[in-house]
Design a protein that fits this description.
It contains no helices and eleven strands. By secondary structure, the chain is mainly beta. Strands 2, 4, 5, 6, 9, 10 and 11 form a seven-stranded mixed β-sheet that branches. A four-stranded antiparallel β-sheet has the order 1-3-8-7, with no helix packed on it. The N and C termini lie far apart (37 Å).
Length: 122
């Protein structure tokens, strides 16, 4: 499956952005989806994950309460609504998909998008 992330940009601290990730798969609803991010000089880290039907969702502690992951299986799309952004959220954001895994370890996801850059100024 191919993943195309979009929606990144430049925003001031306290602002909001919504990221989208469109999948090419005809059977999008068999994939668990995740969002990850990688800041300059740092390892890629988990942000949020959502199960195939959306019934199970989890977030990393730094984004809990500010970010919301959701999906629309009719549009083959997963979203990440990001509110209350701060400079520490600056990173390239990646979406990932896996048919069987829905956790926070990057190595367990089979498919990755190309990333979209989010820059938050103070």
């Amino acid at each position: 499956v191919q993943l195309q992330a979009s929606g990144g940009g430049f925003v001031q601290a306290g602002g909001s952005l919504r990221l989208s990730c469109v999948a090419s798969a005809r059977t999008f609803n068999i994939y668990n989806m995740g969002w990850f991010r990688q800041a300059p000089g740092k390892e890629r880290e988990f942000v949020a994950t959502i199960s195939r039907t959306g019934g199970s969702i989890s977030y990393s502690d730094p984004v809990k309460g500010r970010f919301t992951i959701s999906r629309d299986n009719t549009k083959n799309t997963v979203y990440l609504q990001m509110n209350g952004l701060n400079p520490e959220d600056t990173a390239v954001y990646y979406c990932a998909a896996d048919q069987y895994y829905t956790g926070r370890y990057t190595g367990n996801y089979d498919y990755w998008g190309q990333g979209t850059l989010v820059t938050v100024s103070s």
